[in-house]
Amino acid sequence: MTPFDRKPRARKKPASHIALAIALATGTALIGTVAAQPAYAKKKEKKAAPYSKEFVAAFTPVQEALNTEGADMNATAAQIPALVALANTPDEKNAAGSMAYNVGLKAQNQDLQLQGIGLMLESGKIDEANLGKFNFLGYQLATVAGKHTQARAYLEQAIQHNFSTAEVTPAALRIAMAESYFNENRIDEGLDYLSTAIAEQKAAGQPVDVQWYRRGLSVAYNASNPKVYKFVTGWIGDYPSESNWRDAINIARNLNEYAGAEMLDLMRLNYRKGTIKNKQEYIDYVEAADARRLPKEVQTVINQGYASGHVSKDDIYIADALKMASGRIAADRSELPALERDARAANAGIRTVVAAGDAFLSYGEAGKAAEFYSKALNMPGVDRNLVLTRLGIAQSDAGDFADAKANFDQVTGKRAPIAMLWAAYMAEKTGAAAPAATTVASTEG
Q: Which one, 25, 190, 216, 403, has the greatest CB density within 10 A?
């Protein structure tokens, strides 16, 4: 069972993919030598001193307390605001920031650590090689403090400076940025950020980390956000495994109340992808197709279910449906020539033309089905989204994948998720030398 199998959905809070335990802040002091610099200001002669006498006077007792074992760090922390107020030059800001960070570290005061990081970065004195690390630490501290806008600014700089470690990959940083939005319940902005990151990665000809898709998909799914389908189609486009396709189709089912004609067209895709794996799904397909209307399609699907072992011949409902379908096929097939003639007539009504498309599609005659669906598109009273979907299916079965995708791309409304999945299937087909399409009617019963 996968998280997207047909079952009630449990909503979960977004989980961070980068531990916010302040890993860098739990070791030794981040800056060891910078904090000692004011002492050298006394030796400067004639040049503008990087540290004022007032700053050195405020700095020295804080430094001494920091270096004294057992000193009261909370009391020392109380001296930091006065020191920061005297920090005017880049060197002073860097030294004050270093002191604020290190005192905050010993006092377990993360707000003070964050202030220190900010001052050091503001000073412009941090080596280029360390900018990624400092900004990442600022991101972590700001996130813990709930300052998400500030956290995102630091994280963006960490990304720009190519920060990474063995545990924190560049891909994880992108997810962390999205998480920052999710943590504020700014779902759309987080999803948009991930979508942009995916688009940029693809434009650069680089593979997209599967976690980008999975995180976006998971958040959008739990929020019932329609952007879920963009992540779904991208995911199965880049990672088209059978299990992923099965999850993709189940996501569309779980998030929508599909029945009848809509369910039929979704189950047709499920069948063609070979992802129908349990008896209930076969029952859903058989019910949607209806042995009285599309007997050949019902017969084909049931026989495939028997052959796959997913459906037992002891199941009474399936057995009765097969019996009804098999008994209807001869008469139904004999009516096709008259239906074809009537549908081609100049005065044919929309119902007759669509019925002809449906009948020929179910018998595997994709060319004729496409002809009638194309005609129906230009007729008054047409259900455009239904006909576009089925025209695309007929074109797919005929191997006309590019035109099929173009028609699926035009579908709107409730059928849009179904059409998006079909369009992803067409993209998969055109991305490789595809074999002859497997149609519903290709298995003889």
A: 216
pLDDT at 1: 52
pLDDT of the residue at 93: 96
pLDDT exceeds 60 at position 26: no
**Residue-wise pLDDT tens digits, 222-270:** 999 999 999 999 999 999 999 999 999 999 999 999 989 999 999 999 9
Query: Hey, what amino acid is at 180?
Result: S
Q: What is the mean pLDDT of residues 317-327?
A: 97
pLDDT of residue 184: 93
Q: Is the pTM of this model over 0.85?
A: no
Q: With 90 as the cut, is the pLDDT of residue 383 above it? A: yes
- Exposure of 138 in the CB half-sphere (CA atoms within 13 A): 27
Predicted confidence at residue 419, as pLDDT, reads 98
> What pLDDT score was predicted for residue 38?
55
- Secondary structure of the chain in the HEC alphabet? CCCCCCCCCCCCCCCCCCCCCCHHHHCCCCCCCHHHHHHHHHHCCCCCCCCCHHHHHHHHHHHHHHCCCCCCHHHHHCCHHHHHHCCCCHHHHHHHHHHHHHHHHHHCCHHHHHHHHHHHHHHCCCCHHHHHHHHHHHHHHHHHCCCHHHHHHHHHHHHHCCCCCCCCCHHHHHHHHHHHHHCCCCHHHHHHHHHHHHHHHHHCCCCCCHHHHHHHHHHHHHCCCCCHHHHHHHHHHHCCCHHHHHHHHHHHHHCCCCCHHHHHHHHHHHHHCCCCCCHHHHHHHHHHHCCCCCHHHHHHHHHHHHHHCCCCCCCHHHHHHHHHHHHHHHHHHHCHHHHHHHHHCCCCCHHHHHHHHHHHHHCCCHHHHHHHHHHHHCCCCCCHHHHHHHHHHHHHHCCCHHHHHHHHCCCCHHHHHHHHHHHHHHHHHHCCCCCCCCCHHHCCC
- Residue whose entry in the numeric block shows the structure tokens 């049931």: 302
290 C-beta neighbours (distance < 10 Å), count = 16
Do 118 and 97 form a contact (C-beta atoms < 8 A)?
yes
The answer to whether the beta carbons of residues 183 and 14 sit under 8 Å apart is yes
For residue 224, how many other CB atoms are within 10 A of its CB?
12
